[in-house]
Each structure stands twice: as structure tokens, then as C-alpha cells.
Amino acid sequence: MTDVLWILITLQIAMGAFDTLFHHELTERLAWRPSQKRELRLHGVRNLIYAALFLLIAWSEPKGLAALALMAFLGLELVITLIDFVEEDRTRRLPASERVTHTLLALNYGAILTLLVPFLLAWAAEATGLVATSHGLWSLMLSAAAAGVFVFGLRDLAAAERSERLVQPDAVAMGRELSGRRRVLITGATGFIGRRLVAALTSAGHEVVALVRNPAASVLPAPITLVTDLNQLPADTRIDAVVNLAGEPISDGLWTVTKRRRILRSRLEVTRDVRRMIARLETKPEVLVSGSAIGWYGLHGDEGLDETGTARGCFSHRLCHAWEQAAEPVRGLGVRLVTLRIGLVLGAGGGMLSRLLTPFELGLGGPMGSGRQWMSWIALDDCVRLILHAVAEPRVVGPLNATAPTPVTNRDLSRALGRALNRPALLAAPALPLRLALGDFAEELLLGGQRVLPAKALATGFHFKHPDLDATLAAIVGARARATGASGLKRLSSSVAGPAAALVEGNISSRP
Question: Taking every pair of C-alpha atoms in the chain, what is the biggest distance, in angstroms?
């Protein structure tokens, strides 16, 4: 085999690794999408074939029938790849970078076959057998690649089997918590929380008007009205409630000066547009539920914070404060304003947790820094239900903490995720490298935290259906059901008590 052929094989491995890690894991997160069960099976079988092919080529020269068997495996891999291309186009919208990568992989694979087949035909004419050989570093490289694709092949087959347990509960029950038939305008409808909120409303028969940038790329359940500009809504449009969630993702990159400006500008511009739309509507909506985050409080260590808590200065506080202030003028228009201070929303389809699933599943997870920082979390469906509670309940005014009543430390969150995935969670990420690499992003989102309690939600009658972290994570990752022992019952009973429940007696719902 020539050096050119080895170089092409190496290039194929590199592009395949990029496609798997960047597209399948980081971008598309296929292992956590129930709709991709068949694609995962195809990937799993193909990866196991790759593992066998890589080891065979690395350490032997197949002769006679063995060479013919190798050609049959190459043909099978080609058939699986073609079926995979059809399955991908049928079940999901591929990003442009993935399509380009697939094209390059196909062209390079054709070149590999053009150079490899003559060797295989020559070997097929010899007596049957496997002649042991070594190609030095090339053999070691192929062996490492074989180990990698073998691991991901088994993982993809396991993920395909698990996908049946990842199906989200029916959203209609959530939507029915909002009585009557409402027309709700949603910004950020294609985001992590927005998609689930739209599903809850539409499945329960409510009308949804969604502000989106690209209607053609929107994958939102029908029936729904899409607009690309709020000025497209006439002044006589009836809107019962507005939920404003739009904004540049905050945790998908370094907080450079440019990134910070985009994060701030995206939130302020949409919120001001919402405010102007409300001002010109002949009939005002009853309520505006406008996004914010628990970053409003800044970094407080172990101090428990309800909606009356004070703030400490940092970028997160300045961002959330400006966002909340941009919505404030709607009060003067007679519209009830709720600023939703959202915590760490747990779900497989987005947010920080979705980025942790792959390393934790591979046994590479663990706490960040000391692990003592507080993580105030909420299950995705509870977050959606709380938004609908804010729409329906006139006593909810002003800041509303969207967090479960049982915040945990980062170490406890890591251990709980490890238990859910049945993996160790021992590989801590040291604080210093995170600070040096990520700056304020690491300091505020990863190493800092707030112990935030949902006092106003509890005081106004909201009931959390997912207060227990272990049960929530087990449902998210599709963990197999386990018998609930004494420790599980203890955790469950304590989750509905504690400091947050005590705050109900303070009747803070009367405080905006």
C-alpha cells in the first residue's frame, strides 16, 4: 500500500472524527434525540465495521477469500452509508457544514477505493490466509482509530436502544393548565424553552403567534402563526399574553467584547420591539412575561435568595438588569409585568446539561472547580408550567424565580448526573485553567453560582412536579427504572420541604 493511500485513509479518519464529534455530538446531539433511533443504529453498525476493517488493514494482508471478504465488508459499508444519507435527509435538517463534510468524505472514500481495490484484487488471486504485517506508525494510527470507532459504535447502538425511554411526556397537560382559549405571542419560540412552550400551548388548543427570524427553517408544531417582524401585526390584533424569551445564547462561546454586545443588544432590541407593539395595540395584552435570569443576583456564595434578594455587580447582573428595565415601561400601559429569572434549565434538548451529557456518558465528567458553588436548577417542563402559571395567576407580579425548591451544589449535581448515567463523576475540572481559558464566562457561569429559591411561585400556589434532582435526571437520560429505597424516599420527602417551603409563610407574593 502506497503512502498516498495511507494519507487518504488518515484524512478520511480525521474528517469522520470531526463529523462525529462536532456534528453528531456537539451540534446535533443525536444520541439524545428519540427521532434518530434508526440513524443511530446505522452509525453503530457502520462504526463496528470500521473497527474491524481498520484492525485488519493495520496488521495483516488478507489473501484469497479473506481479501474477497474484505471487499464484501467495504461494499456493505457503502450500502449502509447510502441508507444513512437517505435517513438523515428524511428525519432532520442537516447544517451546511455537515453536508459539506459528507461530500468531502464521499469524494475521499472514492479515491481510497480506487487505490485500494487493485491491491485487494491482487491479494484475492493468492492462497487464502492472513499474512501478519506492520506498517509502523500507520498501523498504530489505525489501531487508535479502531478503538475510537468501536467505542462510539457500541455507544450509538446503546443510544438507539435507550431512545425509546427518552420520549417527552405529552405536552397537552401543561397547556391545559392555562384555562380558556388564549392567543399568546412568543419571542424565542424556536429556542430550548420556547419550543416546549409552543408545543404545550398548541396541543391544548391555544393560539400561538411566534416571532421568528427564518420561517422556512422553523420546526414548530402547527397550527401556529409565524411573523418575522412585530410590525406585521395590525393594531387591532388580539393578543392575550406575551412571553418574551428571545436573545443571543449566553453559554455557547467566550464572552468577548463583541459577544457581550450581541448578548445584550439581542435582548434589548426584541424587548423594546415588544414594548412598542404593545403600545400600539388597541387592546392591550393582560400580561407580559419577559425573560431574565438568576444572574441578576450576581455571585452570593451560600446565601439563600428569594425574589427580594439584593444584587451584586457582574456582567450577568448588568445584562439581566438592563433586560428587565427594558420591559418595565409596559406597566404604564396597564399591562401586568412578570420578569422570569430563570435558573439552570434541565433537559436533553438544550442548555448546559446537553453539553455535559456526552463527557459524563463517556466517564469523563466531574465537578467544576471546588464543586461547592450552588446550582439553582429547574426541569424544563416545570419551567414551561411556571410560565403558564405566571400568565394565568394575577398575583404574580414583578420578579419570579424559575428554579426548583431544592438547589444543589455543583458537586452534588455532578454526582447525580453520574448516578443517572451509571458512570463515575470523578474527573474534576480545575478552576485555574477554566479561569485562564474562559475568563468571566467561567467565573460567573461555571465556578460561581447562586442559591435561589422560588418563594413567589410557592406563595402563589405553584406546585413543582419535578422537585427531586435524581428523579429528574433519570427521566432526562432515560435511565432504567430502579426500585425506590429508603434513601430515595428520604430525598423525595425532603424535596418538598426545607427553606423554600418556609418562605411561603412570609407571603412575599405581595412584594413585586
Answer: 90
The set of residues, in sequence order, having a beta carbon less than 8 Å from that of 396 and lying 6+ positions away, is: 338, 389, 390, 456, 457, 460, 509
Question: Running DSSP on this structure, what letter comes out for residue 465?
Answer: S
- Decide: 475 and 327 in contact? Cβ < 8 Å: no
User: pLDDT, tens digit, for every residue of 357-397?
Assistant: 888 988 889 999 989 999 999 999 999 999 999 999 999 99
Name 71's Cβ contacts closer than 8 Å, sequence gap at least 6: 117, 120, 124
Model pLDDT, residue 214: 78
**Rounded-to-integer distance, Cα 217 and Cα 342, Å:** 26
| 467 cis-preceded (ω within 30 degrees of 0) | no
Distance of CA 86 to the CA centre of its chain: 25
pLDDT of res. 222: 66
Cα separation, 170 vs 162, whole angstroms: 19
Residue 334: predicted pLDDT: 95
The model's pLDDT over 249-301, given as tens digits with 9 standing for 90+, comes to 887 777 888 888 999 999 999 999 999 999 999 999 999 999 999 999 988 88
Low-confidence ranges of the chain (pLDDT < 50): 483-512
- Tell me if 255 sits within 8 A of 364, measured CB to CB: no
Query: Cβ neighbours of residue 478 under 8 Å, at least 6 residues apart?
Result: 162, 163, 164, 165, 166
Residue type for 84, please? D
Number of residues written out for the chain: 512
Instruction: For the chain, give percent helix, strand, coil, nearest 5.
Output: 55, 10, 30
pLDDT for residue 484: 44
Grid cell digits, residue 20? 462525529
Complete DSSP assignment for 106-144: HHHHHHHHHHHHHHHHHHHTS-SEEEE---THHHHHHHH
What Cα–Cα distance (Å) separates residue 501 from each residue in 222, 379, 384, 389, 458? 39, 18, 21, 18, 7
**Cα(372)–Cα(7) distance, rounded to whole angstroms?**
48
Residue 222 burial class via C-beta count within 10 angstroms: exposed 0-12, middle 13-18, buried 19 and up: exposed
Question: For residue 496, what pLDDT is reported?
Answer: 39
- Reduced to 3 states, what is the DSSP secondary structure of residue 243? strand
Q: What is the pLDDT of residue 171?
A: 85
On the CB side of 40, CA atoms within 13 Å amount to 23
pLDDT given at position 501: 43
